[in-house]
Amino acid sequence: MSDAWTREIPHQLAGHWWAFALRGLVAIVFGIIAFVVPGITLAVLLGLFAAYMAIDGVLAIIAAVRGLRAHTPFWPLLLEGIADLVAAAIALVWPGITLLALVYLAGAWAVVSGIFLIVGAARVHEVVHGRWLLILSGVFSTIWGVLLFAWPIAGLLVMTWWIGAYAIVFGVMLVAMAFRLRRMLPPGATPAHA
């Protein structure tokens, strides 16, 4: 990767500063909701997971039946559809087990996304003055993920608060980064919308 291309990245990001700000604001609002109504937050997460699994399962089974009519192999899709429906049923019948699985999934996501943020920040070099915010966001995300793995049964309420705290801190850092990027725009430049 050439140094000229790497130096151009911050200017491209500056044109999209509003996307960082919007993403940060959504994270902050989600974090506040997680603190104010933690039970609803967990119920919504569980409901969304069950609904997704059910819809995905039904669609996979439909695709398998259509494959059977076209004389193409359909067993993998049929088995996937059945597995999705079983996962949806487990989420509804045994929500505690499902929530524990979601804790591990959230932990894995936080670790992976944190590592990618750190790597991404390292690639923009010193040209972006606020890159330390991206690095800090990545470190925070990774630590939060590790904590979820270390204490998964610390209580679903605590997990909801962790999610809320993570979302608020992450959102504040993204909004701060957005304003730093906005300052990099040349005078009179309009932000990019796509």
Short description:
By secondary structure, the protein is an all-alpha fold.
- What is the overall shape? globular
β-strand number: 0
Number of helical segments with 4 or more residues = 7
Secondary structure category: mainly alpha
| N-C termini distance | 24 Å
Q: Tell me the radius of gyration.
A: 21 Å
Q: List the domain count as a whole number.
A: 1
The average pLDDT value, as a whole number, equals 80
Low-confidence regions: none
Q: In percent terms, what proportion of residues is strand?
A: under 5%
Secondary-structure element order, as H and E?
Answer: HHHHHHH
Helix content: over 70%
| Biggest beta-sheet profile | none
Please give a structural write-up.
- The protein has about 190 residues and is mainly α.
- The protein has one domain.
- About 85% of the residues lie in helices and about 0% in strands.
- The chain contains seven helices and no strands.
- The longest helix is centred in the N-terminal third of the chain and has 32 residues, at about 40-70.
- It starts with a helix and ends in a 10-residue tail after the last helix.
- About 25% of the residues are buried.
